[in-house]
Write a structure and sequence with these properties.
heterodimer, A: alpha+beta, Ubiquitin-like (UB roll), DNA polymerase, domain 1, 2 domains, 5-stranded mixed beta sheet, elongated, B: 707 residues, alpha+beta, Aldehyde Oxidoreductase, domain 4, 7-stranded mixed beta sheet, 6-stranded mixed beta sheet
């Protein structure tokens, strides 16, 4: 349960908050099928005033809750209208309150640039920008993202064009399999939007919440600095 | 025009730095991976996994799950009465309208198990219990006992590397869709031409009725060669539901069973003369690859020490089965051998570079290359300045040190087939059923074709990632680049020769006097007699030229070498190891695209930092479970963890003339050894196992009387 104010709601990543190394302990989810992810889904984050019905230990009920966006009314567990402003366009979807922003983007709107990898706020492959900040879409509930400006990688430039930051990733070969790349591009954008004179150390800090398995970090370092030099953050 | 690679002075594209062709697709977020495919009416699949490390499946009851909201199909994947041999064995698959609904339904599947005894930890053979061990080999060369008697300095040590997983960012899985009796599978695979038959057999249709589509894929590293049980189950669910099904592995499942690199440990005894000449080796190695035993390692690694004996014992455990992990067995064999040699060099009070050079003759055919690479790496690392006698790293809690290792890999070409087409409008296509794992295969194919046609790279359309194209080998073992580049070269040379024959009369020359260069077809030595590429192609009329080519041994070869060095800083109060700098000097014959080749090596170093310092699949004997099937506790290196990386590709005479050889595996072999050796150099004692975690550093310091 949480009574945090709405502006604290999504899993925002501040510059000095590098979320890569976690210390929360957790049992393997295999036995019960219950995971922290389900808990987050089940209870909702922050701005929803939560009333989670916990059933006998091994599972969590679908969320019911009331939020400011629903005018203080209780909603769920059935699907409800959720209106999201994505890349400047409003989209109204019928979603259960437990649906994450990432699943809404990928499964319902075919905006698949944000990837599902760890699905629990570790790797950054799902990074989108909400109200100017880099956010993990996998641990943000869609219902909580209402009333906010959500930017996905598809919203950077019209289809067929290449954003200068994406171009910098190409020029510096800052991608191999490319599955982490959209997340990196969005995290870089959020960083460069706030930091006009990026430093080597700043890049490492700001991208510490994004993981790559192929090992493209050398290219990423160069890409961010090149994009910044060219004013590619616009 | 024969097939051989153009000489250095005639290459315009091969060997230069060219950005990968699919880069814009990826960095714009627009390209669709298998995980991103959304089909009309598509359902979401999920599997129910065995929670026991070893159990008999007594009864499977899906009746309640079938009644759950949104559920459209259920598929039993495991027979009642059979034994599941690891936690994570797939038992049931379900498909429902949404991801959340299928998760809800999966919880309602009732499975009765009869738990059985299991072993999931890396036990030594003497502690594992007879039913869990299998002695594989014992190989002797020369006379080890005489060798050790003649030795002047002998070292003994134990070294090892635990089980790690692949952790592909795009998990294993696929979207399956039926169209009548034909099946389309968008699969995340390293084996586009190969898995159709396997999935077809699983669902009872011929392989040619299965189309595999994989334009891009999110990482494989050796774990995605098979169609897999979930590929078949996904197709079965789609058949039952009459709708497409997407079933990608959840992250925990991915880390539990979709990839494991076997562990390997060894007790080693190694001996030399006082001048550093290696004379004898004796090792007993062991390790686990899950319930089956993998091949035995080849120890010692690279250095063929005379008078050697190597015994290997497999420990059979109830963890997920192994899958080939980038350079199978090599990183472990390298760690064990290079650590032992480094310890011996310390005992001899020799600089490891001098010690390796002293013995370079017993590395075999590649010894000249190794020598050149040792010199280059030393220069790039500034080794002579940085190296100090072991543990002699000055006052203060943070100790610095450097380490060295060398490695090898085969990298012979796989068998690939290519069709090259020239159209009368001047456009060209190259088609093959290969795949680009992110290594630059698509770009390599385009470079070779464009070089042959004398055209810019944009003029070539590359069709790969679909099983409808001519079959190509799986991408594994660094076999792809040789396969696709030689097949493309042969197909495009044959195609352009056909074009020469067509246009030769209009140039008043014979076909063999023509060349394709600079966007023209022209008479060799007489540039005034030329046609633009487009003019030449227009002479084809309505007919296109298509030529087929196949992998060719005369354009490729095998066996590469590489030398790596690492510089680390170790905080002896916290045990934390930081990478300061790594140097990789690598050969792989003729480099097609220097840019993506260097990226492969950078990536290998980073993957190496990860397995040297962080990665560990932690198994719990109490529960039989993997304790860290997630990405916060299964740790990957981040952008701030890698230090400064320097990559140098060996090219030019002596390298280019060997033809094309694979590169993916070799540079990932040495990082564990170089980092381990650098840590030993820094703190004065060996941390015997990787990953070199802070607790292991502190334990080694305590044991060595250094803390």
């Amino acid at each position: 349960m949480s009574d945090k104010s709405p502006q604290d709601a999504p899993a925002e990543r501040e510059k000095d908050d590098v979320p890569k190394k976690r210390t929360v302990s957790e049992d393997s989810s295999i036995k019960t099928g219950f995971s922290r992810r389900d808990f987050i889904r089940g209870t909702g984050l922050a701005s929803v005033a939560v009333s989670a019905t916990v059933l006998l230990g091994d599972e969590v009920a679908k969320a019911t809750g009331r939020s400011q966006e629903t005018g203080g009314k209780w909603v769920g567990p059935e699907a409800v209208d959720v209106t999201l402003r994505i890349n400047g366009q409003p989209h109204t979807l019928q979603l259960e309150p437990r649906v994450t922003l990432l699943d809404a983007l990928r499964d319902r709107l075919d905006l698949t640039g944000a990837k599902k990898v760890c699905d629990r706020a570790t790797c950054g492959a799902c990074t989108v920008i909400i109200d100017g900040k880099a956010v993990y879409a996998c641990t943000t509930l869609a219902i909580d993202a209402q009333g906010r400006d959500i930017q996905t990688i598809e919203g950077l430039v019209p289809e067929g064009e290449l954003h200068p930051l994406s171009q910098a990733f190409v020029n510096n070969d800052a991608q191999q399999c490319g599955f982490c790349t959209p997340g990196f591009v969005m995290a870089c954008k959020a960083y460069l939007d706030h930091e006009k004179s990026p430093t080597y150390e700043g890049v490492q800090q700001s991208l510490g919440g994004n993981l790559c398995r192929c090992g493209t970090y050398m290219g990423v370092r160069h890409a961010v600095l090149e994009a910044a030099k060219k004013g590619g953050q616009a | 025009m024969d097939y051989k690679w153009p000489p250095a002075d005639q290459r315009t594209l091969i060997g230069t730095r060219i950005s990968r062709l699919d880069g814009p697709w990826k960095s714009s977020g627009r390209v669709k991976y298998s995980y991103d495919i959304n089909r009309p009416g598509m359902l979401y699949g999920r599997m129910v996994l065995c929670p026991h490390a070893h159990a008999k499946v007594v009864k499977i009851d899906t009746s309640e799950a079938e009644k759950m909201p949104g559920v459209k199909a259920v598929q039993i994947m495991f027979d009642e009465g059979k034994e599941a041999l690891w936690a994570g064995q797939e038992i049931v698959a379900l498909a429902a309208e949404t991801e959340d609904q299928v998760r809800d339904a999966a919880r309602k599947v009732k499975i009765e198990y009869q738990p059985l005894p299991y072993l999931v930890t890396d036990a030594t053979p003497d502690k594992a219990g007879a039913q869990y061990i299998k002695d594989l080999t014992e190989k002797t060369t020369g006379d080890p006992s005489t060798g050790f008697q003649q030795a002047e300095v002998t070292h003994q040590g134990r070294y090892g590397a635990n089980v790690i997983t692949h952790c592909c960012l795009e998990s294993h899985g696929q979207v399956a869709e039926w169209n009548g009796d034909s099946l389309t599978v968008w699969a995340s695979t390293q084996n586009v031409s190969g898995i159709g038959g396997e999935i077809g057999t699983g669902v009872g249709i011929p392989g040619n009725k299965v189309e595999i589509i994989t334009p891009v894929m999110g990482g494989g590293f050796g774990s995605k060669f098979s169609g897999d049980a979930w590929g078949v189950a996904c197709a079965q669910l789609a058949k039952k539901a009459g709708r497409p099904v997407k079933m990608m592995l959840e992250r925990d499942h991915e880390l539990m069973v979709a990839g494991a690199r076997p562990s390997m440990y060894a007790d080693v005894k190694v001996a030399a003369k006082k001048d550093g000449t290696l004379v004898a080796w004796d090792s007993h190695s062991w390790g686990t690859a899950g319930p089956a035993s993998p091949g035995a390692p080849t120890l010692p690694y690279v250095f063929k020490i005379p008078n050697s004996r190597a015994k290997h014992t497999a420990v059979l455990t109830n963890i997920g089965p192994e899958r080939a992990w980038r350079a199978p067995n090599h990183p472990q064999m390298c760690l064990i051998t290079m650590s032992a040699l480094d310890d011996l060099a310390a005992k001899l009070q020799m600089d490891p570079v001098d010690f390796f050079q002293k013995n370079i003759g017993i590395t075999g055919d590649r010894s000249k290359n190794y020598n050149e690479e040792l010199v280059k790496a030393s220069e790039l690392m500034d080794w002579k300045k940085k190296w100090h006698a072991r543990g002699d790293s000055g006052p203060g809690p943070v100790k610095r040190g450097v380490g060295l290792s060398i490695h090898t890999w085969g990298g012979a070409a796989n068998t690939s087939n290519c069709n090259a087409t020239i159209h009368s409008d001047g456009s060209t296509e190259v088609s093959m059923g290969t795949q680009d794992l992110g290594v630059g295969t698509r770009t390599v194919v385009a470079i070779v074709a464009a070089e042959t046609f004398g055209l810019p790279i944009e003029a070539v359309t590359v069709n790969i990632g679909d099983s409808k194209y001519p079959s190509a080998g799986a991408s594994g073992g660094s076999t792809t680049v040789g396969g696709v580049s030689s097949a493309t070269r042969r197909a495009t040379v044959d195609a352009v020769n056909q074009l020469f024959a067509k246009v030769a009369p209009s140039l008043g020359a014979s076909a063999d006097q023509l060349e394709a260069a600079g966007g023209q077809i022209r008479v060799k030595g007489d540039p005034s007699k030329s046609l633009s590429w487009r003019q030449a192609c227009a002479k084809l009329g309505t007919e296109s030229i298509t030529a087929a080519g196949k992998t060719s041994r005369d354009l490729t070869s095998a066996s590469v070498g590489g030398v790596q060095m690492a510089e680390v800083a170790v905080d002896t109060e916290t045990g934390i190891v930081r990478i300061e700098k790594m140097v990789a000097v690598q050969d792989c014959g003729l480099v097609i695209d220097l840019k993506t080749a260097e990226s492969q090596v950078y990536g290998a170093l980073i993957m190496g930092v990860t397995y040297a310092l962080y990665e560990e699949k932690i198994m719990d004997q109490q529960t039989g479970h993997c304790l860290n099937p997630n990405m916060e506790f299964y740790k990957l290196a981040g952008i701030g963890d890698i230090g400064e990386l320097v990559v140098h590709m060996m090219t030019g005479p002596g390298y280019d003339d060997r033809g094309v050889i694979g590169l993916g595996e070799p540079p990932v072999v040495s990082p564990g050894a170089v980092i381990s050796n650098a840590v030993a150099n820094a703190i004065g004692v060996r941390v015997p196992y990787i990953p070199i975690t802070p607790d292991r550093v502190l334990a080694a310091l305590a044991k060595g009387g250094k803390a």
